[in-house]
């Protein structure tokens, strides 16, 4: 039994994945300044003008000269906007202690005064270099000036992202996509497994799947356990129903045998009469009905355990050969129109014996009522197998097309003449076909009699 943990509940898992996505998004946004260490950007024209004005003010206020002469830089300066730092032959002047390393790093990448750059190192923004010439006696000495400013790194990066919505959307998608995929996969796979189990039930396979009770979240495992209990209950109900039908059929044979024995004794004692003939006729009809019930129970008892995947042509090959032979003996024209190219390449999932029996029942029904001609047409359409059986008999009223598939149903037309049947053949056939997710329907035939059409789904692996 799977150990219970809080994270295995579906609601907690969805809640946790949502907040995980949210915190990861925040973590990436706030850590972007650290990932930005190797990104150096060009100074835009309007910013370049501001830096040049600041450089001019620094020269006029003798700020540059004071720095070169060794004047101390107050800590307050780092909070008072941007301030200049002067560099001469790798000698850094005017920088506070925590600004030395960022300037050294920046100097390694930005050395051309014609194309000054800027870069933020956590909360220190460095821009430059700008060239300044200071007089020293008879010569002018070139100095590189860098401007440093204190910035809020998180504020800068958040402003950058919100100023560019497409980047914000991309970051959200980048974070949420893999997390949501893991979440959907953890929910979807057990549901897909449950769907496969439900499809198996629909096809008549009443076997419980224990993996439904061990995979997925707690709620899905509970659904799996309930589904398996339902499957087992359905299997028991169907098995008990079929066993009861078989038992009843067997029990009915005993009084029927006694009735037939008593009838024989009565005929021997009193001779033949219309009454004994009528009793014998009804007894024979009752015997046929009991035999049909026994046949139904034997065919359907645990029929779902005998399902297999088999080639299409194996369904009708023997049935059509036997029917053609019987039709020939009775001088009936039997035509098969096989319109399927390479039927052995197509498959059906089901009980081959039952399906063949259903097809045989319909064909035998046509043999009973046809005048001289039967056509069997086989074709495929939209992953469905169609088998149409047409005869040129008297046909039946349109209102009876659905009724002929009811058990023990007979009509008072041409098809009610003495044929020895009990009205179970088509009922058995439609029960088998429906058990294989198919359909069996009747319409007027183009030959003038009845058309009965099978529709069965193909097995698509």
Automatic annotation (TrEMBL):
Record keywords, A-Z: ATP-binding, Cell membrane, Kinase, Membrane, Nucleotide-binding, Phosphoprotein, Transferase, Transmembrane, Transmembrane helix, Two-component regulatory system
Cited Pfam families: HAMP (PF00672), HATPase_c (PF02518), HisKA (PF00512)
One GO MF term attached to the UniProt entry: phosphorelay sensor kinase activity
The keyword Transit peptide is annotated on this UniProt entry: no
Predominant place of localization: membrane
The HAMP domain, residue ranges: 185-239
Ranges for domain Histidine kinase: 247-460
Keyword Kinase: yes
GO cellular component annotations of the record: plasma membrane
EC number: 2.7.13.3
Bilayer topology: Multi-pass membrane protein
Transmembrane segments: 12-35, 167-184
PROSITE patterns in the cross-refs: HAMP, HIS_KIN
UniProt subcellular location: Cell membrane
Enzyme class, broadest EC rank: transferase
Taxonomy, superkingdom: Bacteria
Reaction catalysed by this enzyme: ATP + protein L-histidine = ADP + protein N-phospho-L-histidine
InterPro entries named among the record's database cross-references: CpxA, HAMP_dom, HATPase_C_sf, HATPase_dom, His_kinase_dom, HisK_dim/P_dom, HisK_dim/P_sf, HssS/ArlS-like
NCBIfam families assigned to the protein according to its UniProt record, in alphabetical order: PRK09470.1 (NF007007)
Name of the protein in question: histidine kinase
This protein's encoding gene: cpxA
